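Entry type: protein chain
Record version: 2
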Amino acid sequence: MNATENTPPKGPIKGVLFDLGDTLLEFGRIRPREIFEAGARSSYDFLKSLGQPVGGFNWYALRSLLSLRLCRLVSALNGRDFNALALLRKAGEKRGVNLTDEQWEHLTWLWYEPLTKIGRTEPRVKETLTALKSSGLKLGILSNTFVHACALEKHMEQLGILEFFDVRLYSYQFQFRKPDARIFSAAAERIGHRPQNILYVGDRIDKDIIPAIKAGMTAVLKDAHTNSGKKLPPHARRINQICDLPPLIDKINTEAPAT
């Protein structure tokens, strides 16, 4: 483990919040085109099997791509993430697609599923999360994403880690997203501890580490390709793997004044 030694006294740590992508779930450098094409094909075949009015595949895929790009552009402009399930449902119903709630969720999963082929957790993650929770810490997730919870949590359930997180916050559920301070405040309120008693683990310096520090939390940068070669900000810590957290938290709590 490699952690800086200049973090001001905080804590003791009573809650830990995690980012998802390239923190809890490792995706690495994905190939967006391949992921999109695989999702388009499986979602199209599903709708076609139900006799839904989807037309030809090429037009279906192009229409879906243009819709996604437009939503991403709007999201970049207004600082809010959209709800992928709501987008799929609105666009589909407009074209006469008629599905049950469960089928809409399954359709959302089919678009996301190609990512599960590459998304993995580190070795010993379940053992580490068990140790953290057994020590009395409250664990939660705070992630920027437009992917609906039904898909994300199905993936986490398959990996055997969903049960550890009683608090799960996704940016599409809010009118703002990281690095907005309000979403860190909302997460602290949900997990039930003051920011100075919360440790936040993420892979992005700009959207995770710096705003977590500003929010009053202890920030820990998880090594990933997204921060390779970047300088660790003052008052932040760094870990190589999630399994480095228990000894780091023990060290912070030993140094921290009781509150």
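Comment: The longest strand covers residues 138-143.
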